[in-house]
Predict the structure of UPF0056 membrane protein.
Amino acid sequence: MNFNFKEIITASMILFAVIDILGSIPIIIGLRNKVGHIQSGKATLVAGGIMIAFLFVGEEILQLIGIDVNSFAVAGALVIFFLAIEMILGITLYKDDEPESASVVPIAFPLIAGAGTMTSLLSLRAEYYVENIIVAILVNIIFVYLVLKSSKKIEHVLGKNGLNIIRKVFGVILLAISVKLFAANINQLF
């Protein structure tokens, strides 16, 4: 076993920034108001399962279609870069249709375990040990569950300005992470 506290903390922070559950509170509140109830436990378990499964089979899927992890990490760095730009500037580069119900599908996927999260997992796998990434996923899944369960209280405490500040701070952190991922993997391609 290659448990490394620093890797766990770094991977946890990267996933926390990419999942952006605090930044998603307005979406979660809107869904809850629209349909009345969100199955927090079910959504959290499904999202965690998706992330762990993708961590293990994502690389094999890439090999099947002839893409190496470094190429995917560079592409992932670009996706994370644009997610960070969205968070910092408050713009939407990608708009998905609004879900009709707040079931597992809109919450677990793509809100929690979306494209950015999947890309980040494979990018992390290129740099960190798998067991540290799994611990980071579990830490984030616990946090996601707590946020889903108490989203109304969090919204009330932080207010709209507090949520905007948190979103922008994590956007800057995510931007720095994307630059680091890009720089670390671009050399491997040439």
Q: What stands out?
A: The chain has one domain: 5-187. Residues 5-187 form one domain. Helices lie at 5-19, 25-35, 40-64, 69-89, 104-112, 115-125, 130-149, 151-186. The mean pLDDT is 85.
